[in-house]
Design brief:
The longest helix is centred in the C-terminal third of the chain and has 28 residues. This protein folds into 2 domains: 217 residues, no CATH class; 296 residues, Beta-galactosidase, Chain A, domain 5 (Distorted Sandwich). The chain is built from 12 helices and 19 strands. It has an 8-stranded antiparallel β-sheet with strand order 8-9-10-19-16-15-12-13, with no helix packed on it. A 6-stranded antiparallel β-sheet has the order 5-6-11-18-17-14. The protein has a 5-stranded mixed β-sheet with strand order 4-3-2-1-7, with no helix packed on it. The radius of gyration is 30 Å and the shape is elongated. By secondary structure, it is an alpha+beta fold. The two termini are 31 Å apart.
Length: 547
C-alpha cells in the first residue's frame, strides 16, 4: 500500500513528461546542411535544377542569365510586398504587411527570401520541353514597380519570354485584394512549324533552417515539405529523410497539392482537381531542397495556343480559410494524434473570440468552460484527496509504529481505508481522464496563428510570445505551489520534497513558453484551487461536498 502513496506524484510526473515530450518535439534541431555555405552563395547561386519528368525531357536552359545580373520588379498589394526577378519570372522575395518579424517588430515577417533576410526560400516555375523557358531563363518585366490601387481588386503582372523553337511564352501572376493567393499561369503560343510537347512545373526551393530563430526553451515546430492526396491523405516529409533518400510520398496522382510548411505559415501549390500530376521532393546542390509538382500541358500544334495555371497560397495557417481553398489543406495546422479533440476545441475558442474580441479572454473562458464540463470528475477527485488529507495524521502514525514491518503497515492502511470508505486511487483516475483534453488545448494554443501578435491586457501584447516580464509564469508557479499544499502530503519526506520541487520545475519551463499557454495553465490552476479549497473545507468541517 505504500506504493499507492506515489499516485499523486505520478500524476504530476506524467504531466511533466508530456510537457517535456512536447518541448523536445518542438525544439529538436532542424537539419542544417547549408551551415557551411557562404553567404554569397545563398544570395547568388543555388537556383536548383529544372525538374525531370516522366512525360517530358529536360532541354537546355533557354536564355539563361545570372541572378546577380537580374532586375527585380516590386509588387505591392494590401497583404504583402513581393519582388519578381527577370530570371525565372518568379517571386524571389515576399514580406507580409499583417505580420511582423519576431525578432524585430518594426520589420515585416519575410516568407520568401533570396538570402537577404538570412534564408533561401524561393518560388520557381517554368516549362519542361525542347527550347522552352524555365526558372533559369530571362523573362521580360513589364515595369519596375506596380501597386494595387485603391478600389482595384485584381492586379496582373504579365511577363514574356521567347522560346528557342519560336514559341512565345507568357507568364501571368494574378494578385487579388484581401487574399494570400496568387494565380500563376503559363500561356504557350506556338508560332513555329513543329508541334511542341510541354509540361509545366511549380516548385519551392528552400534551405533546411527553421523560419524563425528561437532562444533556449523556445518553441520550434515542424518545418518541411508536405503532400496531400485523397488516397494517401496528409504526409509530412522530414528534410533528413529527403537527404537519406527515405522520403515516402505519392509520386503520381489525379488530385492533391504540395506545400512547404513552417510554424504559423505555409506556402502551397494548389493544382486543379482531376488533372494528372507528378510530385517530387529532392535535395539539390548547395544544401537546398526542391519541392514541387509537374503538370502536363500537352501537345501545342503550330498556330495553336495552350495555357495552364496553378494557384499559389503564401500566407498564414488561418484554419477557416485553408479548408475552403483545397481538400485537406487545413491539415497543415497539425495537432497530431489529438486532432479529434483539438479541432472542436479550436472551434469553441474561435466562437468565444467572436464574443469577446480578445483571444486572451477567449482562452480564459474556454478554460472555465472545460472546468465546468469536468466539474463532476474534478469534484470526485478533490473529495478523495480531501479525505486522504484528513487521514494523513493516522497514516503518519502507522509509519511510526510499523515502519519496519511493511506487510503489517499495509494491512493497517487497508483497514483504515475500508473503515473510512476511502479509495486511494479515487483522486487520480478523474485527473487522468482529463489529461488528453488539456494536452489537446495545449497544441491548439501552440499551433494557432491566430495567437500570433494577439494582445491580451497590459504588458501581454502577443500571446504567442513569452511574457516579457515573466509575471504570468511566476504566478502560475505560485498557484501550483498553493495547489500542492491542498493535496495530501506524502508520508515519505523524499516524496514530499519532490512534490515541492514540481512548481519550481514547471515555472522554469514556462518562463519561455508562449504567454497564451501560460495564461491557460494559470487560469486552470486558479479554478482548481477554488474548487479544491471549497471541497476540502466541506470535508474537514464534516459536510458533504457533493450536496
Amino acid at each position: 500500500m505504500e506504493q499507492r502513496r506515489l499516485i499523486p506524484l505520478l500524476v504530476f510526473l506524467f504531466s511533466l513528461v508530456m510537457l517535456w515530450e512536447a518541448w523536445l518535439r518542438h525544439n529538436q534541431p532542424a537539419p542544417q546542411p547549408q551551415a557551411e555555405r557562404p553567404v554569397a552563395t545563398q544570395q547568388g547561386a543555388g537556383l536548383g535544377e529544372v525538374p525531370q519528368s516522366q512525360r517530358a525531357a529536360v532541354a537546355p536552359v533557354s536564355g539563361a542569365i545570372e541572378e546577380t545580373q537580374a532586375h527585380h520588379m516590386v509588387v505591392e498589394t494590401d497583404r504583402f510586398t513581393a519582388e519578381i526577378s527577370e530570371r525565372g519570372g518568379d517571386i524571389v522575395f515576399l514580406a507580409f504587411k499583417d505580420y511582423a518579424a519576431r525578432e524585430d517588430r518594426s520589420k515585416p515577417f519575410v516568407l520568401f527570401d533570396d538570402g537577404r533576410a538570412g534564408h533561401v526560400y524561393r518560388v520557381q516555375s517554368g516549362l519542361i520541353g525542347a527550347g522552352l523557358p524555365n526558372h533559369r531563363s530571362q523573362w521580360q518585366l513589364p515595369a519596375e514597380a506596380v501597386q494595387l490601387a485603391p478600389g482595384q481588386d485584381v492586379l496582373e503582372v504579365r511577363l514574356t519570354a521567347q522560346a528557342d523553337n519560336g514559341a512565345l511564352v507568357t507568364k501571368v501572376l494574378r494578385f487579388k485584394r484581401g487574399e494570400y493567393l496568387v494565380e500563376v499561369r503559363h500561356e504557350v503560343a506556338n508560332a513555329g512549324t513543329e508541334p511542341i510537347e510541354a509540361s509545366t512545373y511549380y516548385q519551392f526551393l528552400r534551405d533546411g533552417l527553421p523560419a524563425e530563430e528561437h532562444s533556449l526553451f523556445g518553441v520550434r515546430t515542424f518545418t518541411g515539405p508536405a503532400v496531400y492526396t485523397a488516397e494517401s491523405k496528409y504526409k509530412k516529409i522530414n528534410f533528413e529523410d529527403v537527404l537519406k533518400g527515405k522520403a515516402e510520398f505519392p509520386r503520381l496522382a489525379q488530385d492533391g497539392w504540395i506545400a512547404m510548411v513552417q510554424h504559423y505559415f505555409v506556402a502551397a501549390w494548389l493544382p486543379q482537381e482531376g488533372v494528372q500530376r507528378e510530385f517530387y521532393v529532392r535535395p539539390v546542390e548547395g544544401g537546398l531542397f526542391q519541392t514541387g509538382v509537374i503538370l502536363p500541358l500537352g501537345t501545342v500544334a503550330p498556330g495553336e495556343a495552350k495555357e495552364g495555371s496553378v494557384r499559389l497560397y503564401a500566407g498564414p495557417q488561418t484554419q477557416n480559410v485553408l479548408g475552403s481553398l483545397a481538400p485537406g489543406f487545413d491539415l497543415v495546422v497539425d495537432y497530431g494524434w489529438l486532432t479529434v479533440i483539438a479541432a472542436p476545441l479550436f472551434w469553441v475558442l474561435s466562437w468565444l473570440h467572436k464574443l469577446t474580441g480578445n483571444w486572451g479572454w477567449a482562452i480564459v473562458l474556454v478554460t472555465v468552460l472545460l472546468k465546468a464540463i469536468f466539474y463532476p470528475l474534478s469534484a470526485a477527485s478533490y473529495r478523495s484527496m480531501a479525505k486522504m488529507r484528513a487521514l494523513t495524521p493516522r497514516l503518519q502514525r502507522l509509519k511510526e509504529l510499523y515502519g519496519d514491518d511493511k506487510a503489517r503497515m499495509q494491512q493497517e492502511m487497508m483497514r483504515i481505508y475500508q473503515e473510512e470508505k476511502v479509495n486511494p486511487l479515487g483522486g487520480c483516475l478523474p485527473i487522468l481522464v482529463q489529461i488528453p483534453v488539456f494536452i489537446a488545448l495545449y497544441w491548439v494554443l501552440l499551433n494557432s496563428v491566430e495567437m500570433r501578435q494577439a494582445p491580451w491586457i497590459l504588458w501581454i501584447q502577443d500571446l504567442s510570445m513569452r511574457d516579457p516580464y515573466f509575471v504570468l509564469p511566476i504566478l502560475m508557479g505560485v498557484s501550483m505551489l498553493v495547489q500542492m499544499k491542498l493535496n495530501p502530503q506524502p508520508v515519505d519526506p523524499m516524496q514530499a520534497k519532490l512534490m515541492l520541487a514540481m512548481p519550481i520545475v514547471f515555472t522554469v519551463m514556462f518562463l519561455w513558453f508562449p504567454s497564451g499557454l501560460v495564461l491557460y495553465w494559470f487560469t486552470n490552476n486558479v479554478l482548481s484551487i477554488a474548487q479544491q479549497w471549497l471541497i476540502t473545507r466541506q470535508i474537514e468541517a464534516g459536510g458533504k461536498a457533493s450536496k
